[in-house]
């Protein structure tokens, strides 16, 4: 049985390793040794997460996926959560989350088959509940944000997201130097739309034809 820690943050502006110490402390207190750690900055609303699926590809039957909270694993829609659960079940990977005490029993090999099956059933139900709560929390926050923006627009107070002037200045410099859009995206972590916006400001068509990309 190997313990594989999974650390996730939603985007590159957040520290995906924030909970590393907390997870390592939990593992030590429960007599576990973390064999590998998988870190990524991807939204929990996306099923397509490279590091999560690398973890699953590396895992063997009985391995533990250890995470800080269930919402680090899933803010998925119900259909996508079912797909992820199917992947976990197919590989017989046990999910242990620090915010889900019912999962802690899964972190020990010293348990008989009946007890293990009982805790798997209870833990599966609680995982479903917390995954649903995490998705609802995400949708509620998005809805409140949209409502706040609509109100601010109606009152003439909405200015949109502040521009990252330092980053955009760097993108402009890279465009002037002849870097391709793909190179700029890889270097800055920005979207292609952002590069296009800066290129338009400069009046340049670098990369538009795709020749340099």
From TrEMBL:
Q: Which InterPro entries match?
A: Recombinase_CS (IPR006118), Resolv_N (IPR006119), Resolvase-like_N_sf (IPR036162), SSR_resolvase (IPR050639)
Gene Ontology BP annotations: DNA integration
Q: What is this protein called?
A: Recombinase family protein
Q: Which SUPFAM superfamilies does the UniProt record give?
A: Resolvase-like (SSF53041)
Q: Which domain of life is it from?
A: Bacteria
One example of the protein's molecular function in GO is:
DNA binding
Give the Resolvase/invertase-type recombinase catalytic domain ranges: 2-156
Tell me which residues this entry annotates as catalytic: 10
Q: Which UniProt keywords apply?
A: DNA integration, DNA recombination, DNA-binding
């Amino acid at each position: 049985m190997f313990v594989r820690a999974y650390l996730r943050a939603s985007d590159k502006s957040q520290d995906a390793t924030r909970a590393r110490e907390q997870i390592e402390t939990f593992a030590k207190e429960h007599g576990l040794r973390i064999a590998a750690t998988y870190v990524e900055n991807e939204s929990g609303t996306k099923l397509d997460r490279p590091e999560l699926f690398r973890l699953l590809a590396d895992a063997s039957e009985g391995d533990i996926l250890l995470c800080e909270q269930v919402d680090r694993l899933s803010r998925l829609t119900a259909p996508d959560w079912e797909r992820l659960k199917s992947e976990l079940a197919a590989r017989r990977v046990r999910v242990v989350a620090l915010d889900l005490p019912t999962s802690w029993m899964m972190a020990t090999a010293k348990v008989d088959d009946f007890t293990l099956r009982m805790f798997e059933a209870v833990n599966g139900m609680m995982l479903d509940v917390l995954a649903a709560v995490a998705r609802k929390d995400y949708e509620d926050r998005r809805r409140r944000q949209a409502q706040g923006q609509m109100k601010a627009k109606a009152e003439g107070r909405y200015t949109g997201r502040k521009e990252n002037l330092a980053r955009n200045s760097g993108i402009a410099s890279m465009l002037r130097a002849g870097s391709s859009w793909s190179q700029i995206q890889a270097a800055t972590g920005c979207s292609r739309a952002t590069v296009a916006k800066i290129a338009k400001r400069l009046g340049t068509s670098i990369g538009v034809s795709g020749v340099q990309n």
